[in-house]
Amino acid sequence: MRKIGGGGDIILPIIFDSRKRFISYRFKTKKLGVANKLHRLFIDKLNIKVVYEARTIVNNERVGYGIIDVTEFIGSPEDIASAIYSENILNSEDELKIYESKVKGLGVVLLHYPLMLGTISEVVVFPEPLLKGILEGIKSEFKSAGEAFLYYMGIDGGIKTVDSYKDIFTLDLKELFNFILQLTVATGMCSEAKLLKYDEKNGKIHLSISELFECKNLKKEKPNSQFFRGFIAGVVSSLWQTDVKVEEVTCIAAGSGFCQFVITKSKP
Hints:
The protein is of the alpha+beta class and 268 residues long. It has two domains: 107 residues, ACT domain (Alpha-Beta Plaits, 2-Layer Sandwich); 139 residues, Muramoyl-pentapeptide Carboxypeptidase, domain 2, CATH 3.30.1380. 33% of the residues lie in helices and 29% in strands. The protein is built from five helices and 13 strands. The strands form four sheets. A four-stranded antiparallel sheet has the order 4-5-3-6, covered by helices on one side. The longest helix has 38 residues.
């Protein structure tokens, strides 16, 4: 397990083992003893191994989250949720999220805080309004120079992210790229990241990103992503060991339903 540190109680637990299947969960409630009851449900009644669990209190509500090993469990995330409700551990008014990553063998707890993905072991977590305010402030104050600064800051973060994982996980380049995409979802950068096309041979990638933090709830005349666009450029250039061009072809800030990015190898 690797823990990505933030501030206070905010951490991002990550587990990866391609031989196994993991599911992560998160709950928020005012009820007492939920974490202990979930632990016993997983072990005693569902025969599921608990890999990681933690709890904290946020605004007088109890928040718990964890990762469970469901390799031997015959069932779906919905079956686990049904068991939790049928045992009256949580009620319908409580918040419960059960999540299985799209990357085989990845267990990661979803957070709701955008993460500046740089040197992973020393990463800094920012609440979304603060981070968006910083990015928009830089663009407003320094215009094109500010946009360029954010883009190259993103590139550096993307390169360091690949460096943090390429020697840890024995994945092919496409799998590693998709793994990093799912980290952007887990850390709150976006709500969904879809890899629509991956063609390393011809040097082209097409992505669809939902609710990108850098662009959502804004109205712009042109695509607004600079930091995330740079981040993707850094990731792909590091994976492919060549310069790439990243274009945001549609943007939610400019009225589209999704932010879409096309990555191409730069011409020699």
